[in-house]
Amino acid sequence: MQTQSTAIVMIEYQNDFTSAGGIFHDAVKPVMQNNHMLDNTVAVVSKARAAGISIMHVPISFAEGYRELGSEPYGILKGVVDAKAFRKGSWGAAIVDVLKPHDEDIVIEGKRGLDAFPSTNLDFILRSRGIRTVVLCGFLTNCCVESTMRSAYERGFNVITLTDCTATVSAEAQRSALAYDFGMFSHPMTHGEFLQRL
User: Tens of pLDDT along 139-178?
Assistant: First the structure.
């Protein structure tokens, strides 16, 4: 693996998902505990950073009032608004302490929807840094991770998705995404399999 042209892209490792007291934590906690996704991600990031792989954090956040989403959000983003989650500057929107960005990491700005590409500077930064392989992990497996996976695939990146570094709101949804979707748009593998390639 060419480490200099590889980036770990970490989607929404924020307290509202990752941490007790987070608005959506109880929903994702069973899958997180079952596959040890947070511990696995910490291990990947530590070893990848030491190997010279770029680490990129992609949080989502909204101003008070969620004006970025218009007057009638629907679907999953309506759930975010109704729950008052991921408010800019709040504890819930902060990246979890165990994955707090290091000085050499990059925090991608502007994520307001599901796919990490359209409203952010992610594509520009990946291409500016000569990244060809994108390694995805985070929340939600069948939502933001999958949306970003499809987009990265379409944009011509070599996409790896770490199956045990993702979580969503049910074991059934997790299994379905891994079984039917990940292999269509990425090279799915466990964090252990990925680390063996470093």
Answer: 999 999 999 999 999 999 999 999 999 999 999 999 999 9
Structure tokens at 52: 């010279």
- Distance CA(41)–CA(96), nearest Å, equals 12
Whole-structure pTM value: 0.97
Contact 136, 148 (CB under 8 A): yes
- For residue 138, what pLDDT is reported? 98
Please give the structure tokens belonging to residue 102: 């290091």
- Sheet bearing 106-107, strands edge to edge: 106-107, 54-58, 6-11, 133-139, 158-167, 187-189
3-state DSSP: the chain helix, strand, coil percent, rounded to 5? 45, 20, 35
pLDDT of residue 120: 98
Taken in order 12, 15, 19, 25, is the CA torsion positive or negative? negative
Supply the CATH number for residue 77's domain: 3.40.50.850
Give the number of C-alpha atoms closer than 13 A to the C-alpha of residue 41, restricted to the C-beta side: 31
Q: What is the count of structural domains for the chain? A: 1
Q: In 25-90, where does DSSP find H-type helix?
A: 25-35, 37-50, 75-83
Q: Which domain holds residue 108?
A: 3-197
Report the helix count and the strand count for the chain, using DSSP H and E.
9, 6
Asked whether residue 70 carries a pLDDT value surpassing 90, the answer given is no
